[in-house]
Amino acid sequence: MEEKELKALVSLLDDEDQHIATHIEEKILSLGTTIIPYLEQEWEVSFNPTVQKRIEEIIHTLQYELVKERLKDWYNSKEQDLLTGMWILATYQYPDIELEKLRQDLEQIYYEAWLEYKPELYAFDQVKVINGVLFNKLKFGANTKNFHSPGNSMINVVLESRKGNPITLCVIYMLVAQKLKMPVHGVNLPNLFILTYRDEQHTFYINAFNRGLIFSKQDIENYINELHLVPQNSFYEPCNSLEIVRRALRNLVMSFEKVGEHAKAEEVKLLLIEIADGGDLGV
């Protein structure tokens, strides 16, 4: 479709006949995500609030479809790369964020840790190096003042603000540790996402939400007893990238509900369905 035709379509978005306006919206939506830059341009030059509002709604719908497509492709991919999954989640709220920018930010953190890291260090000392870089030097930490902010689930926001929730802090910690060849993995503990350091000689746990505090399996057992839950293997064992992204999406649903953004919470619930196995909707 030529630019003139698109311009004509956009100009009809404020038609008083709701049927015509709806038909125009459907026509524009059928053109797909490639027209988003053009719609953004039209929004900037429009002085009609009705047209602007409808353009915003169309752009949101198109961007949301793009997130769904990317998430479905990621789910079906062999690798299910964790950073890519977290990037897709972040594009729900920040559609312009680039995966390569996130990679560069993490590369910089890795470099800071690499300068101080020695592979021959004892396991606890390896963790102390990462803790020192992340929590002392770079000032990453728990966002306790604004715990329910949706931004806490967005890895780009956490990399910039250095404040996050347990899962995003663990993801950043784990990606840096794994690049240093440390055997660090995520663990789906109820109410608190944590990490485990696990090799042939060691098994212990790390709480990235509490500045990398190291604790034992017995501590987890005590925690489970306090919550009056039946112990499950998943409370102690490493989980995969899919489980981590699902949990991050569930956190995002809860955050949007807490701040009253119920429409967004419903949209994120639908994203969870895209990466559900069979009857498990991940919510």
Outline the structure in words.
The protein has helices spanning 3-11, 18-29, 36-45, 49-76, 82-91, 99-116, 123-137, 155-161, 166-179, 217-226, 241-258, 262-274, and strands spanning 141-142, 163-164, 184-189, 192-198, 203-207, 213-215. The chain is α+β, with helices and mostly antiparallel strands and 283 residues long. The chain folds into two domains: 3-76, no CATH class; 82-274, no CATH class. It has a four-stranded antiparallel β-sheet. Helix 3 (36-45) runs antiparallel to helix 4 and helix 5 (82-91) runs parallel beside helix 11 (241-258). The longest helix has 28 residues, at 49-76. The radius of gyration is 22 Å and the shape is elongated. The two termini are 41 Å apart. 30% of the residues are buried. Mean pLDDT is 92; it is low at 279-283.
Short summary:
The chain has twelve helices and six strands. The chain has helices spanning 3-11, 18-29, 36-45, 49-76, 82-91, 99-116, 123-137, 155-161, 166-179, 217-226, 241-258, 262-274; strands at 141-142, 163-164, 184-189, 192-198, 203-207, 213-215. Strands 3-4-5-6 form a four-stranded antiparallel β-sheet. Strands 1-2 form a two-stranded parallel sheet.
